Structure formats: C-alpha cells, structure tokens
Amino acid sequence: MKKFLITIFISIIFCLSASAKTVPLYENSITTEGIGIISLPTFFKIYEKPDMKSKVLKEFKWGSAVGSYYTDNYSKNFVIFEPAKDIGYMTVVDDIENSGWYKVCYDQHNQLTGWVFPENYKFYYWLSFYTKFGKANGLYEFRDLDLTEKRLYAKPDLDSQVINTFERAKNIRVQIFRGNWVLVRVYDFEGKLKIGWIKWRTDEGKFKFFPNVIK
Fold it and tell me: Domains plus CATH for the chain?
C-alpha cells in the first residue's frame, strides 16, 4: 500500500511539472530584456564564462530530457516555458558572433546571467521574434498595462491623432512593424474591430505587448 501511494504521489508531481506553463504576463515579468531571445534544448549548462572549462553555474534538464528534474520549478528561469512541448526560451544579453556562445539571463527574478553553448537552439533579435510569432499568432497586452498604452494612433508617432482605444483585447493581429511601433487590428471582447498603431516597446526597451508563442 505504501509503495502504491508513493507511486501515485510521484505521478502527480510528474504531471504537475510536465503541465506547467510560463509566459510573461506583466510589465516586470522580463527584467532583463537584452538583445533578443533564444530557444534552448531540454539539456544544457550555464557557464560563468564562454569557455566549457569555466565554472558551471547551473544545469538544466527538463521536458523530455532523460533524467529531467521533474520536481524543479523553472518558471523563474525561462521567459517562456512549456515543458510538455519542450518549449523553453531565455533572453540573450550578449553573444560572440559566429561562436555559438550566448550570454543569457537564466533567472529573471534575480537578474542572473551566464553563458550557454547549446547543441540545438534558435536565436532571434527582438524585432525578428515579434515579427515571426506576432504575425503568425498575434500579440497580447500585459495584464497591468495602463489604459493610456492601449491607444491606437493614426501614425507611428505619439504626437499623431488617437483614433481609437480598447480596454481588453480578445485578439491583436499584426500588420506591419516599424521600429518600436506596429500597425494592428484589435478585436475586443464585444467583437468590435479597431485598427491603428500601438507602441509595442518603449524607447528604453521595455515591452508592453508580447507575441503568442504557445498556442
């Protein structure tokens, strides 16, 4: 009986961990934006320096990786994390061109950084990331975004005319990016369609909207 209960408990822990999903929901969810974002394999190490002989700061085994640490909660380490689908992204603060080394923020809460040399990965500069996933899956606004940020402008300029506003968007479809601005079609929960320009990122690099990566 005891062995059976232990088995059930382990199964529950496995299911909870495997189904955990993390996406940025608030303006302070991403404290270290860096230059872009990188998708990482289910097993990799964080090094102190871009050198495999340097100190290993942390080791990650997750998702379908053999021997993955199912009881570990990596929600604070990944900006986007869906272990059931082997999806994990971290922000990149620096890289060494054509070397395979990327300096990532592996703890957004404490703003800890280190170097990775992953076997399989995909790196995106932020605009490329927003273009790829924003056009494919749309954007969503952060939950604590002020209503003044939900204004639709006639042009990609804060001095241009505000042609519409929205409170809660059901869907934000991307048309075209122009720097920190994007032309969108916003469908609200009343079914109304509103078109205009929004500023998806401040001039200082803070995000206001984010692409739907996990669908």
Answer: 19-120 (no CATH), 137-211 (2.30.30.40)
